[in-house]
Amino acid sequence: MNIKNEFTVSSPPDEVWAALMDLEGVAPCLPGAALTEQVGDEYRGTMSVKIGPLSAKYNGTVRYSETDEANRRAVIEANGKDARGQGTASAVITSTLSEEGGGTRVVVETDMKLTGRAAQFGRGGIAQDVAGKIMARFAECLEERVF
Amino acid sequence: MTEQAQKYVGGGVPRKEDPALVTGRATWTDNIKLPGMLHFAVLRSPIAHGKIKSIDASAALEMEGVHAVFTGEDLNGEMAAPLPCAWPVTPDMKHPAHYPLAADEVKHLGDGVAVVVADDRYIAKDALEFIDVDYEELPVVTNIEEALKDGSPLVHEEFGTNECYTWPMPVGDVDAAFEKADVVVKTRYIQQRLLPNPIEPRAVVVAPDPVNGGFTVYSSSQVPHILKSALSGICGVPEQKMRVIAPDVGGGFGQKLNVYAEEALGVILARKLGVPVKWVEERSESYLSSIHGRDQIQDLELAATSEGKILGLKVKLTADMGAYLQVFTPGIPLFGAFVFPGVYDFEAYTFECTGVFTNKTPTDAYRGAGRPEAAYGIERLIDELAREVGKDPAEVRRINFYEPFDEPTTTPAGIQYDSFNLQAAMDRLLELSDYESLREEQRRRRESGDPVQLGLGFSTYTEVSGLAPSQVLASLNAGGAGWEAATVRMLPSGKAEVVTGTSPHGQGHVTSWSQLAADALGISPDDVEVIHGDTATAPLGRDTYGSRSAPVGGVAVHLAAGKVVEKAKKIAAHMLEAAEGDIEFEGGRFSVAGSPDQGVTIQEVAGEAFLGVNLPEGMEPNLTADSSFDPPNFTFPFGAHLCVVEVDTETCRVKVRDYYAVDDCGPVINPIIADGQIHGGIAQGLAQALYEEAIYDEDGNLVTGSMMDYLVPGAPELPNYTLDRTVTPSPSNPLGVKGIGEAGTIGSPPAAINAIVDALSEYGIRHIDMPASPMRVFQAIQEAKGRSGGVQEADREGRPGQATDHQTNPGGESL
């Protein structure tokens, strides 16, 4: 499942890039996400989501698999397993920053793979809608908190 | 037996079953509560394919109310045999071992992994969430064509292939027929995967018998007798120690014609724990763990003359088995081999079917089981042929119909149809529907550029019903035992008990069998008790499926009642001190020919037979008789259907405006019940044509995993049906009856699609795959107009067996 989100923030790309590189600083902006520990370049954490009548709490890992400062492109890999056996979620999240009118346009492309109940709930595009809402709140939070 | 007027057969006797059903007094399996009963729930795989690396159930076991947790490793060793497949269609068919719980590797979403036994079902379900399973995910294959390619992920590594079998049936010189053809129609149709939705999901209760040993199994099953034999073999319990009861059963549609993991688990758990156990399926669970229907690709070629006379047919099927073989999985598409030639008289025919494993829930019998698929193929083809040769589809059908016959006639598929008169059914259909006026309305709408176009779609079809002559089953490598048993016994009070081996799950057998027995015995249907669905009280039986009950089981009832009357006649002659040859039997009374005042009623004879005091020399007491009827042939009900649709070319919505059906199932035992079967059947077929599709994504997730996403139509989506019938008796049984349970489901999908294509034929549209959702209609119209239709869902060449519209089109159906 591919999901593309775009948003703009008023800060310039350099500042946004620096903020994005600080996973511990950014994580609280993602609704439902929390980092619990760091092991090498990998973080452990949890992500709680509610999709329609389903709630899932994924325990897993997240790390930067690629950071290309020159092109302002970062790839995050996240893998999680629902705490109550309801399936797994994994995502490769590619963020690309570009300047736009003094601020920054952030393009986030997510290749997400769900298993279990959340995946069986997907035909009406509900998972995509939920992801879109999460990203919108992430953008708002980023704007307020970091800048 | 003595000739007499039919009093109740053919009459609209109200269903005896209904008062209990409509007042909530029926006993479903879930209503059964036994002392000390525990409940179990099954942990199911959340992924389509993976190795089970570890299972940690310690947290679940600590929960209050949890009695036990078992895995495949714990239980599979206690089984005498894996779950059965009863139909090894070829000697080299690949047959994977299938256990109730996967021990090493899960093969499809919903595959059982562990079972929790708890005080109640809520605790059991909650505890599932505390079992930690570590999987190593393996590559997944869901598309049957991809599965056959080299390098595809393998569902069963040990076979080195996903091909389960290839079954060929060549008949006649097909190539010669194609060489002399003026017209060849070559096409590909998709039979989408369907989820059966009986109103009552599956349920099972198993109780150890503390007195005699063994087990009593209550199951929401169509097949208590088959289940008894199978569970005995799977669990290593002697057959005579196994009793299976199918209480009131809320629909089956073939989904409950099976032997399931949970039924075997129930026996094993009851044996292990020494207490009764219960499992009740949830709807979304049913979508993963109960068999699915259809799912095949049909590559078809039809050769014909320029007049539209069919010369030959080539059929190549690729059928999805799913991950395992259930009881009849590999054989279901092969029923199509006998139905593809349809009601059309031609010689040359080939059929080949390849069964394929995928990481999906197994398929098996779903209402019609192989026959709706085949009827759809030939009925769509003949409409394409009609368009090709520029004739009305009614006319092309007519020039290909068999001439009417009432004795068996051999078909291109090598079987014998029993009796046909399609001409009469078609004549009646055209009259009933006022076909000419409908065509006139269609012309008017086209000429005026009405955005709502009218479409007319025929389907003239037959089904193979009355499963099955034992010899034929044996010749197809499906064992045998296609007979059905009945016992009719008169009680001392003059009432009757009818014991049947058929197992109703909504079809109204109690009423119909009462009518048959009442007419044969000359008593009231109210005085007949029908005993069924319990292998202790009805020990012999082959159950209910394949529209077999009336032409096999009903006939057995009729024959047993006839034997009772024969014996009663001897007793009556003795009582009346007359010669047996002088005894007449009418309206339940035996009398002496020429002296109508001298007589005894069958009730009086029954009393005498019970007392045993005044019987003919050497005659045994009691008035009871058994019959086991093994049909000499299948029966072939047929029909002519016309579906009238309005297609809104702007919103792309299809409305079924009218539906006309003229069906012929021989003499009808109960017209209310027969009409009900046709109503439900048409609805189920229209559901396939317009609404339903089980969709898996490429990772093997069932994305139509609940009723929110799987569209089961309700009454508002369906038209009023206009029904009529013709009566062409079957020569295969003394009642002349043919099955009617699946007819509507077989007739209606092609009628609906033919109608939609007819409505849109002015755009040059030749085909729309099922379900003909507004999205598909929109795409077809866009493509016909030379515009991109967005998602290439309706592309017949490129469309995989299971397209996934949600991946590329998140909006789904909402366009």
UniProtKB/TrEMBL annotation, chain A:
Matching Pfam families = COXG
Q: Which residues cross the membrane?
A: none
The protein's name is SRPBCC family protein
TrEMBL record, chain B:
Which InterPro entries would you find in this protein's record?
Answer: Ald_Oxase/Xan_DH_a/b (IPR000674), Ald_Oxase/Xan_DH_a/b_sf (IPR036856), Ald_Oxase/xanthine_DH-like (IPR016208), AldOxase/xan_DH_MoCoBD1 (IPR008274), AldOxase/xan_DH_MoCoBD2 (IPR046867), AldOxase/xan_DH_Mopterin-bd_sf (IPR037165)
Domain Aldehyde oxidase/xanthine dehydrogenase a/b hammerhead, residue spans:
23-139
A molecular function (GO) held by this record is: oxidoreductase activity
User: Which residue intervals make up region (Disordered)?
Assistant: 783-815
Q: By its UniProt entry, which SUPFAM superfamilies does this protein fall under? A: CO dehydrogenase molybdoprotein N-domain-like, Molybdenum cofactor-binding domain
What are the alphabetically sorted keywords of the record? Molybdenum, Oxidoreductase
In which domain of life is the source organism classified? Bacteria
Which Pfam families does the record associate with it? Ald_Xan_dh_C, MoCoBD_1, MoCoBD_2
Q: Which Gene3D superfamilies match?
A: Aldehyde oxidase/xanthine dehydrogenase, a/b hammerhead, Aldehyde oxidase/xanthine dehydrogenase, molybdopterin binding domain
Q: Where is the composition biased (Polar residues)?
A: 804-815
What is the protein's name according to its record? Aerobic-type carbon monoxide dehydrogenase large subunit CoxL/CutL-like protein
Source organism per UniProt:
Rubrobacter radiotolerans
